[in-house]
Amino acid sequence: MRQLSLISLFTVATVLALAAPATSAAQQPKLDIKAFFGLGGTTYVAMLETGRERYAFADWQIGFGPRLRRGKAFIEVLSSFNRWYFEGVNPDFGGIKTQLNSFELPFHAGYIPYKNSYFKLFLYAGYVF
């Protein structure tokens, strides 16, 4: 019940921040579209009776989502798909190759306390579904 009330409070605070009247009549909400792709790698070192064995595994992620900004406040929903490859180490069964897939749909709300033409500081929090 406490988690539900925190989510409700988070949603109400976000709506109030975006619904507040603008300080300038010409100020409009801005929509940023974000897209990303990433590659990565992990090294697993197994300590077996025969000694150490190293295994290297690859992973990748891709994501897309909109960010709505008004003044210094913003909200965003960023969908992300992640895939990790790894191999189980068990001498009795041999190597078991596995992949792990995950889909994330986080909802963020935040504030930009400092920005200039080269740098912006984003402070945000949210909930991941």
Low-confidence stretches: none
In terms of DSSP E residues, the strand content is over 45%
State the total count of DSSP E strands.
7
Number of helices: 1
Q: For the CA atoms, what is the radius of gyration? A: 22 Å
Distance between the termini: 17 Å
* Shape label: elongated
Q: What structural class is derived from the secondary structure elements?
A: mainly beta
Helix content: 10-25%
Order of helices and strands: HEEEEEEE
Average predicted local confidence, pLDDT = 80
For this entry, what is the oligomeric state of its chains?
A: single chain
User: Biggest sheet, in brief?
Assistant: 7 strands, antiparallel
Note the topology.
Blueprint: H1 2-19, E1 30-48, E2 51-70, E3 73-77, E4 79-88, E5 96-104, E6 106-115, E7 120-128
Antiparallel strand pairs: 1-2, 2-3, 2-4, 3-6, 4-5, 6-7
Short description:
With 129 residues, this protein is mainly beta.
Description:
The chain is mostly beta strands and 129 residues long. Helices cover 14% and strands 64% of the residues. It is built from one helix and seven strands. It has one helix at residues 2-19, and strands at residues 30-48, 51-70, 73-77, 79-88, 96-104, 106-115, 120-128. Strands 1, 2, 3, 4, 5, 6 and 7 form a seven-stranded antiparallel beta sheet that branches.
Keywords:
mainly beta, seven-stranded antiparallel sheet
